[in-house]
Amino acid sequence: MISKAVIPAAGLGTRFLPATKATPKEMLPVVDKPAIQYVVEEAVGAGLSDVLMITGRNKRPLEDHFDRNYELEEALTRKGDKDRLAKVQESSDLATMHYVRQGDPKGLGHAVLCAEPHVGDEPFAVLLGDDLIDLRDPLLSRMVEIQEREGGSVIALMEVDPSQIHLYGCAAVETPADGDVVRITGLVEKPDPSEAPSNLAVIGRYVLDPAVFAILRRTEPGRGGEIQLTDALQELAADESVGGPVHGVVFKGRRYDTGDRGDYLRAIVRLAAEREDLGPEFRSWLRGYVTDEMPQS
């Protein structure tokens, strides 16, 4: 039974400067919750109650957010503000949280390797904080189901326009075996579109066999001088005797890339428009703005 989730969160968030000069990008709000809370909620929703964050310098607010704030809770209690008190306590009650610092920023593969002492010899999930998966479109729970049935590792895939595949890791796959499930035969990091084996992009969800740790320990830095998780997964896919097969789940649901400024704004608009408490008034305003006030090109 998979119970541990690893969330790499040591990045500098340079695409959001100056907002991230002193605030971790993972703490930027999406409507009224920081982006990282959505990710932890997704892990918990898939049955993963033990969460390890891989952090770095200036990431202390992440720990504070998932810890108790007794002064704030006491102030809200005195005011009788039960609704806000529940929201404040929600983040600290979500999961058992652990933290380890990555130290040198040597890439995603190195960040995952930092989790080995905590994870040990059992399968585990990796969730990247820039990818928000709408909780109404479960992905991670499906991946856990496939891993428990087939063994090995499972990665999340998404169809993209072929011209955009150079922005992602790309999977070579065999014929679908079970609807949304494919067997992965190879992976390449950010290929030239003319050389890409498919238009199936790797997105930020993984359920990994612990055999990946031994491979990462001897993986040389690849693209960008970083230790690439894709390179280790390619080795697993090429030799099933190492850590079992590698499957992919092709996701067709709602995903928000909060590492991109445009997608970040679209995520806020979509999620706010669909909220019962905010949506009706916000949608009305948005329609009026788009129709009457938005500058015409």
From TrEMBL:
Residue span, Nucleotidyl transferase domain: 4-271
UniProt entry tagged with the keyword Nucleotidyltransferase: yes
Sorted UniProt keywords: Nucleotidyltransferase, Transferase
Membrane-spanning segments: none
Alphabetical list of InterPro entries matching this protein: GalU_uridylyltTrfase_bac/arc (IPR005771), NTP_transferase_dom (IPR005835), Nucleotide-diphossugar_trans (IPR029044)
Record flagged with keyword Lyase: no
Reaction(s) the record says it catalyses: alpha-D-glucose 1-phosphate + UTP + H(+) = UDP-alpha-D-glucose + diphosphate
EC number: 2.7.7.9
Record GO terms (molecular function): nucleotidyltransferase activity
Family of this protein: Belongs to the UDPGP type 2 family.
Protein name: UTP--glucose-1-phosphate uridylyltransferase
Species for this entry: Streptomyces sannanensis
